[in-house]
Fold this sequence. Notes:
- It contains two helices and four strands; from the N terminus they run αββββα.
- It has helices spanning 3-16, 72-89; strands at residues 25-28, 33-36, 44-47, 50-52.
- A hairpin with a 2-residue loop joins strand 3 (44-47) and strand 4 (50-52).
- Helix 1 (3-16) crosses helix 2.
- Keywords: Plasmid.
Amino acid sequence: MPQALGVAVRHTIDVLFVFEQEPAVIDAPECGRMYFLTEPGRGGVWGADVWTLDAGSWLPVPQLPNGCPLPVSDLRRALSLTYPAFRGRTAGLPPQQSTPGGIL
């Protein structure tokens, strides 16, 4: 998801859920994206600028983040609470144009 939305979703997750270990998140400012690692096999498009990668997808990272996979249901809940306000603040701006899994 776009980095600005990811930051807002991360704050929502911190408020809504108590985890024994922090969720694994990859912040990629060079492409303006933030990736939340979830359990595998839950790929799909959630919006014009938010998608999940299928289990067979790959994402090059220089170092694995600390943390544990985030349950998809928790991510969906946080996103559904955060996204309307985020889109209201960014109304009129086009969705971020990048490709899933990195920059081509």
